[in-house]
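Case study B.
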Amino acid sequence: MTDLTTEQVGALAAALGLPATPDDLAEVTHRLNALIEALTPLAELPLEMVEPVPALGDPPRA
Amino acid sequence: MTADRTDLAFLGARQLAVLVRERKVSPVELTQLYLDRIERLDRALRAYITVLPDTALATARRAEAAVMRGARLGPLHGVPYAVKDQFDTAGVRTTSGSRIMEHHVPAEDATAIARLDAAGGILLGKLNLTEFALGGTQQFPFGQPRNPWNLEHDPGGSSSGSGIAVAAGLCGASLGEDTGGSVRSPASFCGVVGLRPTWSRVSRHGSFPLSWSMDTPGPLGRTVEDAAWLLQAIAGYDPKDPLSSREPVPDYARTLADGVRGLRIGIIRELTFGPETDAEVRGAVVEAARRLERLGAVTDEISLPLVPLAGAIFMALADSDGAGVHFRWLRTRAADYDQGTRRRLLTASLIPAAIQQRAARARALVCAEMRDALARHDLLLCPTAHQAAPPIAAAHGVITSRHEVAGRFFTRRSYVTPAALAGLPAIAVPCGFTWSGLPLSLQLIGRSFDEATVLRAAHAYEQECEWWRRRPPGAS
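Model:
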C-alpha cells in the first residue's frame, strides 16, 4: 500500500465528521502510515485460512 | 513519623490483614498512616486523582469495631487500598483520567470494587491514569504522575497511579486494568508486582471500556502474595458481565508456596535476547531464569516468531475498538481530549478495514503460537519491558516521522501484548535494578485460567531474591 498523504487523511477524517487541526492531521498521517507499514509483514503469512476470531479463555488442561 | 510506622506502610496487603486480624494494628491507624503519607508525598508523585479521607476513616472505624467485637472478618479486612479511576465508585466521581468525565459520578460500584469492599478492604481513593486508559497522554488533566524511584522518569501506564501508590507506600495494594500491559507496565517501571488475570477471569462491569476482548482488571501489590489475595477477592463469574467466566476459582494461597520444582519454563528468545531489549534488562531476566533453574524449574529457549509483531497487531485491534467507543465524543468534543489521546483515536478511526481484518487474522496466529508453546511448557518467561522506566520527556512532544511512531509505540508494546492478544494470565515481578537505581521486571505468562502456577513461580522467585523489600529513595 502506498503512503497516505495528509490531504487524503484529512479527507477521510472529514468524511467521518471527525474534526482535526492541521497539526493533528500531520501527526495522524505519520501514525497511520507507520501502523500500515508495521503490519505489512503480515501479508506474507498464510492468513486466508485463518478465521479472524481470537480463541480466548480456554479451560485449563487436565 | 516513626520508623515503625513507615515500615507498616510498606508491609503489603496480606501482612497488614494478618496484623489487623491479630489486633496488632488498627484499621483506623493504618488508614490515617496512608492518608498522612498521601498528604506528604503525593503532591510530587500525583498518584491520586481523588482522595477519600472522610469515607475511608468512617469505613476504618466500622472495620475496627468489627475486629473488637470478634466479628467474622474478610480476607482483606482493614486493609487500605486504592483503585484506578477507570472503575466506577458509587457516589464518587470517576474521571477515567479525562476532562470529558471530570464531573461523572456513577450510581453503582464496579463489581471488582464491590468485591474488594466485601473482602474488608478500605477504599482510600481513585488513582491517576493515562487518559481513558490509552497510552501516550501528553498533558495529564489531573497532574503528571511521576516514578517514585526517580521523579523525572515515567511510572508506566495506563494504571500509572496504581503502580506509584504501591511503590511509594501510599496504599496497601491497588487495582488496575490491563488491556495491553496497563497493569504490568506500571508494575515494571515502579518495581512492584502486577498481575493480568486470564481474560474473563475478573468482571469488567463498571470499568470504562477500551477493547472488549482484552480489557482485564488486575491487582498490583508489594508481593506476589498480595496479588494472589486480591485476585481471590475479585475473580469469578458476574452476571453483570456476560463475558465473565464461570470457570471455578481455585484457592490461590493454597498452592502459593509449592515451589517450581519440575515446572517447564520456555524463555522467549525474541523478547529476551532480541536487539530491542536493553542489556541491563536482558542480564537481569537471564539471571532470574537461572535462579528459577536452581529452584528446580527446567528452562529452555524457545522461538515465537510472530511475537515481535504483537505491538502493532494490538494497536490495530484495540485502538479500533477504542475508536468505536469514543466515536461520538471524537466528533463532538475533540478539543476536550488530550492531544496525544485525540491523535491516537483519530488514527484508529481511519485504519483501513483490510488492515484491521489482517491484524485480526494475525492475532489468531499469535494466539495459536502462544498456545502451542504452552502445550510444551507450564510457563513462558521474558522481560516485562524492553527497558527500565524512560524519562518522562522521552514520551512527550510532537511526532514528526513514522519511525518515531514505531519506536514510541510498537516495540515496547510487543513485550506485554502477546498475553493480551491471547487472553492469557501474566505477571510482572521485580527482578533487579539498573545501575542508576530504576527497577527491572520479569514477566511470567501461563495457560488460560492457570493463574495459580503463574503466582506460585513468581512467589518462589520473589522469596529467593526479595527485591520487593527495597523502597524508593524519597518514600521513607
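The mean pLDDT of chain A is 87. The remaining cases will be described in the next quarterly update.
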